[in-house]
Write the structure tokens for this entry.
Amino acid sequence: MVMRKLEGCVFCSVENLEGEYIVYHDEDVIAFLDIYPVSRGHTLVAPREHYETIFEVPDDVLCKLIVVTKRVANAVRRALKPDGVRIVQNNGRAAGQVIFHLHFHVIPFYEGVHRGRRRLEEREGLELQRLLSEDLGYEA
């Protein structure tokens, strides 16, 4: 099977980028920390094959994607103990999509902690990668 990749798409090449904090991947799905997180533990879940929006992805791949998204959300809950978790998926620029490769955001929220986006620091990224990978049973 030949996997569709889009030249220049940052998510299509995420496994080849240094500094990416992958917490899980299998043959169809990859999960990694957002390098500009909204909060501690903000993780992205994407298909390894390129689909721009949810409207293009085959149902079988979408099913795998949402199952992994749920697993990541549970790992975030267990490992990081947030007060809540938001799962977001945007389609199109008007809806807030910035990276045009289908992905889900798993965003933990902590009472009393209000942060904007910031660059993920290496030490924090490695710690979060370890915690989430361990919970997911993935060797990073």
In short: The two ends are 25 Å apart (CA to CA). The longest strand covers residues 104-109. The chain is about 25% helix and 20% strand. Residues 59-80 form the longest helix (22 residues).
